[in-house]
Amino acid sequence: xxxxxxxxxxxxxxxxxxxxxxxxxxxxxxxxxxxxxxxxxxxxxxxxxxxxxxxxxxxxxxxxxxxxxxxxxxxxxxxxxxxxxxxxxxxxxxxxxxxxxxxxxxxxxxxxxxxxxxxxxxxxxxxxxxxxxxxxxxxxxxxxxxxxxxxxxxxxxxxxxxx
Length: 163
Prior knowledge:
Layout: H1 2-21, H2 26-33, H3 35-40, H4 54-82, H5 88-106, H6 112-129, H7 133-136, H8 140-155
């Protein structure tokens, strides 16, 4: 019984921190984005085919982060409602999705932002491949890669929250 209460308290705290971290300047970043895709879309056949500018990469990384958080919140909420712990394969699915989103967005880009995104993708893949993905995602190297991506995106004027 104590384990269930502790688990519920931990998940509730994680849920609250995740929801609090989701806040940001969504209106400011989407207002400037409306014109950019209109000019870039006809010239490119796919987003991953050609290197993207750093601001666009950071915006795509931010979208991938939001998707991961949304899925994480759904997982935690569902687990709380069911009274069960999340399964490792559920965490794996979320981490694989993050890795795939970032890898696709980066394409062949090689800027500081792209390198940081590739490292977060690699850390996501590494955690997903482990027997306990949720514990592997707590690796300091994973956090360090998120901090590096946050810093690289901040340099180009885009706020993301991977750390």
